[in-house]
Amino acid sequence: MDRLASFPERVLALRDGAQVAVRERGAAGAGASLVLLHGISSGAASWAQALPATGHVLAWDAPGYGASTPLAQDAPLAADYAARLHETLLALGVQRCVLVGHSLGALMACAYAARADKVQVERLVLISPARGYGDDAAAAERVRRERGEALKNKGVAGIAAAIDQRLLSPQAGAQARELVRASAARLNPQGYLQAVQMLAGSTLAKVPQDIPVEVHCGEADVVTPLAQCEQVARALGATFSTIANAGHASPAERPEAVAALIGKANG
């Protein structure tokens, strides 16, 4: 959290009247920008400890998170988030990017890479990617019900209080636990429920073959376990590697390792 001062937030007004909150270091230029997409219980600030040393880096608060305007749809799909991402990148002057999606952010990243109308995506980096449940109606309904009931019964504060137990490995330190709890404590109920709908209704989009794809997974991940992430990598024709001593929220638990991975991707 101490690196937030060098990764400041600003709020952009988009052409469609919506706004989006982003954190940014540097400015778009000739090189590829590193674009970071967070997971369902997180936000842009969760990446602050995991930034590579150089280059233009930006992370958004997805629609309905932080100060970002929710989407118009009650049950948006990954493509709807990708459309808002496109407007955001255009507003920031990004022409080329390396797109990094963590967990739910991987659904958004793949949906964006699959768009015909997009800025140039030089590489796609997926960290503990969520597959989505759009091809499994029973599982999708279970996800909607369970997450909706948890929010109703526990509230945002109740969800945040214990979320580190599932997102981090048993060996995770106090700083990582504080970070994931603090990120979840900032959830907006409307935006969170929209994201649940997206998770339930979407699947990972097929990525064009000319975009290199990497999949990385924390070796102690119980949310998107290694076998599931390996399956995603095979389906996408991606390279695959594990992140040692990390659970699902590896950007919080192993920020140096994640910074090296995404820095290499941007190098």
How are the SSEs ordered, and which strands pair?
Elements (H helix, E strand, L loop, with lengths): L8 E5 L5 E7 L7 E5 L19 E4 L17 H14 L4 E7 L1 H10 L6 E8 L9 H26 L1 H4 L6 H12 L3 H13 L11 E6 L7 H11 L2 E5 L6 H4 L1 H11 L2
Helix pairs in contact: 1-2, 3-5, 3-6
What does this structure look like?
With 267 residues, this protein is of the alpha/beta class. The chain is built from nine helices and eight strands. A hairpin with a 5-residue loop joins strand 1 and strand 2. Helix 1 crosses helix 2, helix 3 packs across helix 5 and helix 3 runs antiparallel to helix 6. It starts with 8 loop residues before the first strand and ends with a helix.
Brief summary of the model shown:
With 267 residues, this protein is α/β, with parallel strands linked by helices. It has nine helices and eight strands.
Strand order of the largest sheet: 1-2-4-3-5-6-7-8
Helix and strand succession?
A: EEEEHEHEHHHHEHEHH
Estimated structural class: alpha/beta
Q: Please state the second-level CATH architecture.
A: 3-Layer(aba) Sandwich
Tell me the name of the CATH homologous superfamily: Alpha/Beta hydrolase fold, catalytic domain
Please give the count of helices: 9
Under CATH at level 1, the class stands as: Alpha Beta
Residue windows where pLDDT falls under 50 for at least 5 positions: none
- What share of residues is helical? 25-40%
What's the β-strand tally?
A: 8
Number of domain modules: 1
- For this structure, the CATH topology is Rossmann fold
Largest beta-sheet details: 8 strands, mixed
Q: How far do the termini sit from each other? A: 25 Å
Q: How large a portion of the residues is in β-strands, by DSSP E?
A: 15-25%
Average pLDDT works out at 95
Cα-atom radius of gyration: 17 Å
Shape: globular
